[in-house]
Each structure stands twice: as C-alpha cells, then as structure tokens.
Amino acid sequence: MNVTLRARTSRKRLPRGKYDRSKSTVDRKGEQRQRLLAAATDVFADVGYAKASVAAVLECSGLSRATFYEHFRDLEALFAAVYESAVEGTRRLQQKELDRQSDPAARLEGAVRAHYQRIGANPAVAKAINREVYAAGRELVLRREVGVSELAGLLMEGLSRAHSAGVIRREPDELTCYGLVHAIEAIGMRYVVRGDTTHIEEAVPVAVRMVLGTFGADVDEVGDKS
C-alpha cells in the first residue's frame, strides 16, 4: 500500500539506520519513541487506523523497521501508546486548572478550556484518538470507556461541589455526567472536522452553560460570569 503523507513537522531526519552518537542511549531511545508517536499520529489522522501500516509510520518518521520493533510489538501497541500519551497530557492540563481554582463554575470552565486548548493545539491527535480508537480493537475501546468514565466521575465530583455551593439546583448523577463528557468531546471534535480549531475556545462558555444548565443553574448568570 502506498500512502502519501504531508510533512507536518520540521524534524531533522538522520539517514535511516543512523543515529546521533553524541546523545546517550536513554536520550536517543526517548527521541526515537517520540518521533514514532508523532509520525503515527499523523498517519492515523490522515488515513485512519484500518489503512495505516508500519511502513507508513517509518516513512513519516525516517526511522528503521528494527528501531520500530525495539519500541513497539505492532501497530496496535503503537496506537495504544499514542492514545495513552494524549489522554495523560489532557488529564495533567485539566488537573492543573482544577487545582488552580476554588469556585466550582470557574473550575469547570478551566477544565473545559484546557481540554479545548489541547484539541486546538493538536487536532491530529484529537482526530486519531477520538475517531480511530473504535477501529483499533476491543482493548482500546475498553480503555476509552474507562477514560470517559473517569472524566464523568471527575465532572460529577466538581458538580457535587457546585450543588453544595448552590450554583446548581439538581444533584448530579453519574449517567448524565457520562453523557455530558461525550457532548463536550463532540463539540470539540466539530471544530476538528471542520478544520477550524483556531476558534475552538469560543465553545468554552457554551459547554459550561450546557453542563450547569442541565442541573438547573441560571445559565444567563453563568454566561455573564464567564
């Protein structure tokens, strides 16, 4: 299969099978792994998981097949690494925002903003992990399910604080929070699909009002504050 990929980065490539001998083995291995993850993200986003191949990843990364198999057993393992890296990065940003705020509405807004900023900065990653995960096998689908459930739990925890503070009138429940996590994700992916992620942050107050309004907040007041 021939796959033509657009060059999305300015990474300097060494001739295949060669490496920078000035770097330590640990640094070199870490750099190789990151190059494979970045290349795989582009491949999965461009052609989809079903049409992706190790050869396409190697073409995009400039690395050798032997190097690939030093890091990953197969394409599925590589996709899992791309997925876990992206999810962990989003979690860190969201937790940073949650730790920075005490007001329940501000915490929610900060977490949503961090999520959309990450999508906007890495649309290929968002496309790969949200669209292609369902083609990557049952194990990855289950991982995504666990991740969404964890986010739903985090959202419910924050909304419980909002309920205690009188920001929302109805006590949150897990199933509704689960649906809202998917809704927030879908709004962000709308900008990715349309190729308009530069404007993705305009969706932040919309998503916040959607969440808080679902549980009986005064959405006009929330809108004024955000």
Q: Brief overview, please?
A:
The protein is mostly helical and 226 residues long.
Mind sketching the topology for me?
Elements: H1 25-47, H2 54-61, H3 65-71, H4 75-100, H5 104-121, H6 123-131, H7 138-164, H8 174-193, H9 204-214, H10 219-225
Outline the structure in words.
- The protein has helices at residues 25-47, 54-61, 65-71, 75-100, 104-121, 123-131, 138-164, 174-193, 204-214, 219-225.
- With 226 residues, the protein is an all-alpha fold.
- The chain has two domains: 25-72, Arc Repressor Mutant, subunit A (Orthogonal Bundle); 76-225, Orthogonal Bundle (Tetracycline Repressor, domain 2).
- The protein starts with 24 loop residues before the first helix and ends with a helix.
- Mean pLDDT is 84; it is low at 1-14.
Which structural traits does this protein have?
226 residues; mainly alpha; Arc Repressor Mutant, subunit A; Tetracycline Repressor, domain 2; 2 domains; 10 helices; disordered N terminus
Query: Which architecture of the largest domain does the CATH hierarchy give at level 2?
Result: Orthogonal Bundle
Describe the sheet with the most strands: none
Low-confidence stretches: 1-14
Helix content: 55-70%
Order of helices and strands: HHHHHHHHHH
Terminal CA distance: 50 Å
CATH topology of the largest domain: Tetracycline Repressor, domain 2
Radius of gyration from CA coordinates: 20 Å
DSSP summary: helix tally: 10
Please name the fourth-level CATH homologous superfamily of the largest domain. Tetracycline Repressor, domain 2
Share of β-strand residues: under 5%
Q: In total, how many beta strands?
A: 0
What's the number of structural domains?
A: 2
Instruction: Assign the CATH class of the largest domain.
Output: Mainly Alpha
CA-based shape: elongated
> If you average the pLDDT, what whole number results?
84
Q: What is the structural class? A: mainly alpha
